[in-house]
Amino acid sequence: xxxxxxxxxxxxxxxxxxxxxxxxxxxxxxxxxxxxxxxxxxxxxxxxxxxxxxxxxxxxxxxxxxxxxxxxxxxxxxxxxxxxxxxxxxxxxxxxxxxxxxxxxxxxxxxxxxxxxxxxxxxxxxxxxxxxxxxxxxxxxxxxxxxxxxxxxxxxxxxxxxxxxxxxxxxxxxxxxxxxxxxxxxxxxxxxxxxxxxxxxxxxxxxxxxxxxxxxxxxxxxxxxxxxxxxxxxxxxxxxxxxxxxxxxxxxxxxxxxxxxxxxxxxxxxxxxxxxxxxxxxxxxxxxxxxxxxxxxxxxxxxxxxxxxxxxxxxxxxxxxxxxxxxxxxxxxxxxxxxxxxxxxxxxxxxxxxxxxxxxxxxxxxxxxxxxxxxxxxxxxxxxxxxxxxxxxxxxxxxxxxxxxxxxxxxxxxxxxxxxxxxxxxxxxxxxxxxxxxxxxxxxxxxxxxxxxxxxxxxxxxxxxxxxxxxxxxxxxxxxxxxxxxxxxxxxxxxxxxxxxxxxxxxxxxxxxxxxxxxxxxxxxxxxxxxxxxxxxxxxxxxxxxxxxxxxxxxxxxxxxxxxxxxxxxxxxxxxxxxxxxxxxxxxxxxxxxxxxxxxxxxxxxxxxxxxxxxxxxxxxxxxxxxxxxxxxxxxxxxxxxxxxxxxxxxxxxxxxxxxxxxxxxxxxxxxxxxxxxxxxxxxxxxxxxxxxxxxxxxxxxxxxxxxxxxxxxxxxxxxxxxxxxxxxxxxxxxxxxxxxxxxxxxxxxxxxxxxxxxxxxxxxxxxxxxxxxxxxxxxxxxxxxxxxxxxxxxxxxxxxxxxxxxxxxxxxxxxxxxxxxxxxxxxxxxxxxxxxxxxxxxxxxxxxxxxxxxxxxxxxxxx
Amino acid sequence: xxxxxxxxxxxxxxxxxxxxxxxxxxxxxxxxxxxxxxxxxxxxxxxxxxxxxxxxxxxxxxxxxxxxxxxxxxxxxxxxxxxxxxxxxxxxxxxxxxxxxxxxxxxxxxxxxxxxxxxxxxxxxxxxxxxxxxxxxxxxxxxxxxxxxxxxxxxxxxxxxxxxxxxxxxxxxxxxxxxxxxxxxxxxxxxxxxxxxxxxxxxxxxxxxxxxxxxxxxxxxxxxxxxxxxxxxxxxxxxxxxxxxxxxxxxxxxxxxxxxxxxxxxxxxxxxxxxxxxxxxxxxxxxxxxxxxxxxxxxxxxxxxxxxxxxxxxxxxxxxxxxxxxxxxxxxxxxxxxxxxxxxxxxxxxxxxxxxxxxxxxxxxxxxxxxxxxxxxxxxxxxxxxxxxxxxxxxxxxxxxxxxxxxxxxxxxxxxxxxxxxxxxxxxxxxxxxxxxxxxxxxxxxxxxxxxxxxxxxxxxxxxxxxxxxxxxxxxxxxxxxxxxxxxxxxxxxxxxxxxxxxxxxxxxxxxxxxxxxxxxxxxxxxxxxxxxxxxxxxxxxxxxxxxxxxxxxxxxxxxxxxxxxxxxxxxxxxxxxxxxxxxxxxxxxxxxxxxxxxxxxxxxxxxxxxxxxxxxxxxxxxxxxxxxxxxxxxxxxxxxxxxxxxxxxxxxxxxxxxxxxxxxxxxxxxxxxxxxxxxxxxxxxxxxxxxxxxxxxxxxxxxxxxxxxxxxxxxxxxxxxxxxxxxxxxxxxxxxxxxxxxxxxxxxxxxxxxxxxxxxxxxxxxxxxxxxxxxxxxxxxxxxxxxxxxxxxxxxxxxxxxxxxxxxxxxxxxxxxxxxxxxxxxxxxxxxxxxxxxxxxxxxxxxxxxxxxxxxxxxxxxx
Lengths: 864, 864
Description:
The structure is a homodimer.
Chain A lengths: L1 H25 L1 H12 L5 H18 L2 H36 L4 H26 L8 H8 L10 H16 L7 H19 L9 H20 L2 H12 L2 E3 L3 H21 L25 H31 L1 H9 L3 H14 L14 H8 L8 H4 L18 H19 L9 H22 L15 H17 L4 H9 L5 H18 L3 H9 L19 H4 L7 E2 L4 H10 L4 E5 L7 E6 H11 L2 H12 L3 H19 L6 H11 L15 H18 L1 H11 L1 H14 L4 H12 L10 E2 L4 E2 L5 H11 L3 E6 L2 E7 H13 L17 H22 L1 H4 L12
Parallel strand pairs in A: 2-3, 6-7
Antiparallel strand pairs in A: 3-4, 4-5, 7-8
């Protein structure tokens, strides 16, 4: 009992606080200046006033979107740059350590292996302890959040810290991990924190719709400041996180991502890394003749092969996760020693890349960034054997092996990195898979390019001019194609242009990316969707490429017809039955079982609360009491309102609450009182009711209330209330009897929270349209109605089943194409008119009560 | 009775037809081969079977999206290339004519002026005669079409032909007109025609949702193949035409646009215009140091100035149109001589650009394409005076004037072209404004760039290396910024990269475009929105940049509360009253005036039809007849089915209609008939029913029907029916009496077409969310309900008013920012519970008929 009443007080206090804030919100300016002026009176007063006006102006401006976006861009650019700096330092430290110990191979090996293992283990442990939500990419989670699902603890400061530090360590280890996915998450957290911070200045940031818009912009910022690719960032984030994109958010993403990318690159200039603002992985391919038309088949081959490769990567990644989960022995062992798996994986991978060991066959000493720079290199490596004019200078040396040629090195690199990346991305640290895949793709492209260059040493062009083949261009194409295939996006093409600073290969890149997407999408879900499935996040699969059946499956084919519902004139017993027979989270509220007119939907919890209020011991005791003192309730009811207030204002002792409830039902059937009888379950409602009660009275007659409190001696009455149940108990059989009796009463819905306009569909809506509406509005379920009558329900589950069923060609009955012929004609209008006629007939009966009788509605009251 | 049975038979026939077609759809293969095999028996049979299988495979594949998209891309690329070729030929012809007459300036002038005037006049006349819908850009119309509005004749073959030929002539004239906007329209028409053509092979192309998706892809193709800019095309078309973009359409646009751009450029290679596939306006800026950080302020200045310039352009364009419309004298004169205005405008513009005349100060002899090529030139013009190393070669000569310097030429060019373009785009020919604006922007950028180059002749960079300023880069930035400002898009940046083939200036371009957008959007609507407003197309304005009030205005603030409605148990008199008192196109159908439970919505036309059926002379005559022959109707009903057919097949005399209708009401109250009594107004339904009736019967039992007709002697019966009203007329007072009597009858809704699930909103929905939902679902109106009860209505009109009101800060009561705090708490739940309580109380009364009486519902039946 204490607990419950404490809760009541809690909501009251919250409401009161909110009320105060509201008052403050209405008039924040008049107060602060006067306050401040008081103690600065006389001295530089005008100065202060001026400063205050500036401050006020700033506060007003803080509400603007662009201030938020600039701040977000700035913060994220700083974070990105600082992280890059830290990662570079970490990698340099490893190189330095490895280089310094070149006298002893064993020591070298120890240093090479221990360093990443320690970093990864620390990263895994740190995130595990601080915020396990920081693990992984974050894009799948952002996708679900942007769909309207609330994931707990995903956008908090703790997760932010865990993700930033964990990611820095993970990337600093030199493992094949990416920065992009986590950056989307980091930017979103940053936006959420920033909007919470800015909401201190004004109320604009409290709106949920606005927050979603800002999160969408933040995703763009995340990609944008990670690659200094504003356009690609916006497009990639749209493709990866949204199903439907509001074009009015477009400028937000562009603005923030551009600003962020700008600051990110300016920091590099400021740090003397670059002379001016240029692309991250600048290429220098020739502009006048970037590629020959006859090279296009080779680019198409890269695209198709990348499609298969991407699908294989997603499959491999999922299988590894599933294998780890399924093997119970391994699983149990790993659960105990959570840090063993990351350490083990790191150990294996770093052992294999050890440069004096196997690493020499796969350019093991190169970092991810160096690898990309070398792969996008302008020169042709393969020709080296022929006319020796080309030398492997600087970091390019890594690809040169005295006992093998560059083709073998590339093949080994691709094969090894492929499974390594798929394995490494399953480590429970903050990490993405975009960059490793990008590197593999680049290597594959390079391989094809080098092969082409070796095949056509003087280029393909038949004219007099000799245009040699540029393998670097192939690498660019391959990178875009493979990353596009893994993520199922086309915008990797744009990212590639922005990363390399050259757009001359636009057509090959687009062709390869589209082909890769076509192949990969028909084989596997995207990496992010795959993770969503593994993590069982609430999602809705996309409609695939050109599945026409979707236009011919209708809601009536997939909806659940046999649903439980609550009628307006049902009894508590019916509620109990409904609760026992279904697990639906939202129950439809219909007018009556006969008419089935949908009035709204009521949450399961609300129904439970209604039921528990009806059968609560408090009510039972009240009944008992009313028997003893049949007039007591009514006598007390007049004074109870004021008494109520008195206890609220005078003291916070929980004892008085016992008095408050028992008196309530006496007032329950008075319809004119605006805020009567709150149920025990819906605590927030009670708070509100009390609040409005309090406010109204306090406003009209505050002095009277206080006087009344003093007169009544609240605590004394409370004591009486608490002792009462102890004095007159009820026997168990009596209780059962009483409960049975209570269950037969009609339900009073006035206190329940009802969604007055649940989303409705018609039976003939196509699956395609239903999917659109569900993903547009972020629905969880929708009721199917026909002229106001409830006929069924569709939830995400049914929809998912239907889509996946039709994707695999089974599960759902697929209508023949021409069935849509009937869409707006015969069959539909037939069903409609029948339904309408029934309704109409019922109304006819209404007007002739002799035939049907007024009690006719009651027959079918019990829910099916 | 005839009428009813016709309809019954009609639906039966329709179902039958559908069933037959379904059967056909299920098993199309077994029939066709056998048919064909019959007459090819013996001879090369296996060959035929093989060919048939191929054909079947092709037909199956034709339904795939990608086939459609490839075809679309191919056709559009061909159209684009052919048109470019024709335009180039036209322009060359003009140049040749002008060049050939260089002996006589007057003749030269005549040739220079007459040629474009004739072309423009022909273009205006041709489109006017063939399809006036082809006039103008087409993007505003596509925007409305993609919002779900059906614009008549906009996607027909006639319009296609008119637009293609009209556009070619208009652009061939050398006027400052663009190709982009019309190309969006042309591609959409092409898609619509193609999908109609392909639907001959299968039923997939009949779906409306799919067509909209294809149209969206077509818009991307339009831009893509116009500029060979697939990515920019997709993004631009999204920004310009959509409010909400379905990401699943993304690949369609990319695929089709890429293919189209590819073919477009391959055609250029094939035609030996280019050596390989490159950008349309290729630039050769240096890659290593594209621009200095300290140049950024200059780029920002370009952006801001372009913003103002863009807004001015839109304003000027609108003012010209409005001026032409407002001046009645001009208007009347122009309406008579429709071709005078285009001719006059062309005359003025071409006179001013005449190269030996004023044109010498504004590079008048350059075509749009040449102008762009020169403006994007890599060299610096202004330095010419200093060290003379640079010579104006080839077309660059046009910018050189012996008596003035390049700055003056550029300023004159910008000023003249500005008003010329604004004026020229109001000519009623197919034309866009993108390209002219793009050129002006490039010139403005060049001007700033040349100024910068003159100011810092040795570049700004403080290090040892000298990097000179590249004015061509400024031109690129200016072009993107001004075109972005006019169209309110950010994707012009991407278009610019794809057009020039260089992405090195990405940050300056992005900064300038965003600033230009920020300025322009706060001053004026986009050019397309401006045209939408001028043309009064049904549209919904965008929510502006960061207007927070939108989150605080709610539906209850803007909805129409005093709406007319139809109750289920109303009388025909009420329908009449409703029709007289409102002009709403959709009337809500509620259960009763007391409960106000929304059941559906009914179209105004349907209500009218119901009313006119009830008061039709046919029914009046029937009543009369029933008095005379009370049993006649029932006797006739048995044979009427065949009789009906007989009249349809034998003759088309209108007399039979009189026979068909009168018998209906006798059967009106039979509740089990599924589809009875069609209203007189819905003629198309009857038509369809009759047609399918005829077809179905002809297919199933043609001989029997013919026989039956002969047996029955249809014409005789028809004659009887026709003579009947003449024999027994009704006096006018009798008619009035009869009508009054009829109006008091209860309405029978069973024949009306009712939308069973109109879209519903709740009172507390914010304006922001309402806007989202309206634009997402393309709604026209929505009912506002509260627990099933109708409380108001919001239509596009109210929404538009509210948005525009809050944009200008008046009209709508704006809530204080913190009002959203109440969103899900006190006030809302209070109102809800009160409403629920009313409903509940009503039900309580239901169960205690002694208190309220069963007739209680009838009191408030008449609509308010």
